[in-house]
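Researcher: Here's a chain I'd like modeled. Treat it as a single chain, no partners, no ligands.
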Amino acid sequence: MVADSVSRRITVEARFVRGGIIDCIWYLEAMASITIRRLEDSTKERLRVRASRHGRSMEEEAREILKSALGKGRESSGNLAEDIRRLFGPLGGVDLRIPRRGPMREPPDFGE
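Model: Modeled as a single isolated chain. Structure tokens:
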């Protein structure tokens, strides 16, 4: 089971002119937190050793592992056609036979 929560920090930026506020901006920064229950002892120990090797805390090591695992191959160019080409291009192309178009049909008459 994974429980999550969000901690928030509010930053206020204000500009003053001769004793009055002319502009005020509120920023809300959110960072998610998760709790992982029923983690096997061997997994926790491997995480501890790995974190120690990298000079990090276990929490920081877990964040880096998640970032690395979830960041792979998920970058979008913003163009769906380009993303599809990049994903399926290495598999090779297919030549499709496109049938010739026939003459245009008459539109239906609805009795008007």
